[in-house]
Amino acid sequence: MEKTGLSPHKELNDPTKLAIINEEDCYPKPSWMLNESVFDTTWVIGKTGYALEDNQNLTRRLSFAKNVSHNEKLTDKINQYLLEDIRNSLLYLNTKGKITRAERASDILRTTCHLIVHANELQGLKNQKPIRSLSEISFEHVKDYLLSFNVEKHNFDKCLDIILKRWNSKSEIDWGSLKKSITLTSRQFKSLKDKLIKYLESQHEGFRSEIGYTAQYPNACIIKFDINYDLAPKVKTISNEISKLHALFTARPCQKYKFRHPVQKLFSSGYTIFNEVVEPEKTPLMPVQISLYTLSSALHFVRAYGPSLRKYLSSLNKAEKTLIDSNGAKKQVDNLRKYQNMAFKNTPIPDALYDLNITSWRYENELDRYKNDFSDGISVGIVVRLYIAAIWILIASFSGARTTSLITLRRSCFVQSPIDGLFDLILRIPKSSERWELEEVHRPIPDIIYDYGLEFAAFVSEIEERRGLVNDDKESYLFTRMLNARSSTASTYRLETHEHQKAFGRDALDDCLDTFFDWIESPLKNGKRWYARTHQFRRFFAVLYFNFTDGEGLDELSWFLGHANLDQTFHYAEVDPTDEWIEEAELTIAKIGASLNKHINADNAIHTIVNKARKTSNISTVIEPLVQKLISEHKEKTNRKFVFAKLKERTFSFIS
Length: 656
Fold this sequence. Notes:
Layout: H1 18-24, E1 42-46, E2 59-63, E3 67-69, E4 72-73, H2 80-95, H3 102-125, H4 139-147, H5 153-166, H6 175-180, H7 186-203, H8 227-230, H9 235-250, H10 263-266, H11 288-327, H12 333-346, E5 358-360, E6 378-379, H13 380-399, H14 403-407, E7 414-416, E8 423-429, E9 439-444, H15 447-466, H16 485-489, H17 506-519, E10 524-525, E11 528-529, H18 534-548, H19 554-561, H20 566-573, H21 580-594, H22 604-616, H23 620-638, E12 643-646, E13 652-655
Helix pairs in contact: 2-3, 3-4, 3-9, 11-12, 11-13, 11-15, 13-15, 13-17, 13-18, 18-20, 19-20, 21-23, 22-23
């Protein structure tokens, strides 16, 4: 009789029943698994922690057919003992509550197979038999596997020299040929490859961009790769590998051929086996001036252009459809571009969009999609990219959410509380949840972000309706792939299968952000431009909130960011009082104070300083240094520093 996995509703967590399970060699099916049988060599698992049969885009495949040695896979009959013990280990860990999400099972499987591959390559170098069971993995195999994350400088220099002599971009590099030029295991070469790419991207302009938008300036966010420091492994990487390997040891009660090494006890961290490790670095903090300029530009864009852009796209759609229907060209693909050009010429551009200088509906050719010169005007496709970036920047800045949480936002994510009338954003936090599914949380947002978010959701719906799609907002992404250039400008009669069900890609999002920073002409810093990413907006929010509350809002901030503990939040949000960023923040206060006709939302000390400066001079350029001087004098007299305080209704002000 064929063995099958138990129902997910009958998961066994009673330790007294584990012995029975072990004897039968059958473990309950995880709740995040869609398969009927745990013995399938490919598991269908839920991306968000739970599996939905009616939407395969919310699932992914976990295959056990992974390499364990040269030309051998884990699912080959000769590796049956390995497969059974590894599969049972994952099921056992799930039953014991050691695996709470599907991705953790995938990570453990991947690392285990990497270890076996590495061990077999070492065996091959010694002309010894390959590993056929977990019990054959030795302490030396485990230790050498962890050591393989370190990169030797002489190997790095040799490969770098070959690359710079032979190739001009990442896409040209023949990594297989490069591996043959050096004697390394697969794991060692993978570590080397990772370091080479990071070095080339940070030091050589030609290796930074492949097919995609080319930024106008060098990126000020990129941290230079230090060969004398960054060749060492990251301490977090080693800790993660140790944790996953130790999971195999934890699962030994279910293994026929037991993995024998308590890895966490043998190697408590990377410091145990490496002389040097790369410490975690804080996300680079955007300069205050650039952050505020970016936020201001994003707010201006969505306020000035959002509603008119949606109406304009609707008008273009109607004009195109009329032309196609009247000419009977529904299936004449070659004429679609001609009708779209006619629709563009015959559709008036709203006055509100006039200063965008829209000169075409579509890109004239594929390469135009990646142009970074806006002097000759822009297409509707570029405007859509700018709109995506603007609304993303606003939501990221005011929610402090991670990229994963924002990409998976539903169009129904903007809600108003029936209790207090305030506005929330519904998102899923991927790292803080201890449950099987991702934790759905509400985070407060300002009312204008709520309004602009709803307008953007309506804009996305307009694009989908143009393609003949009608979707439930609760099941549709806010940042859907229907927003990409081809979908937003394609004909009503040309629809990619299931494309609308997928979330916007990260690379495409980065292109949108880079386009926006160039289009708004974000201020340069030492000849470079800040092409910020989501995590920089997240940290900027954290630092502002932490300093606005003088450190007293740490509990609130930790909850808001979804951190596991306060230490993590403090490390993330703290800025040294002597840091240049603090000085720049004070200069920004001075510039705000120099705006004579603007009301300053501040405490009495700030009001006194600004009013004194205004009485001293009526010229803005003189008041700015005066305010800065008075701030410095105030600090010296009172021995207090300027921070920010949270006021009622989620507004903030400067206090001392």
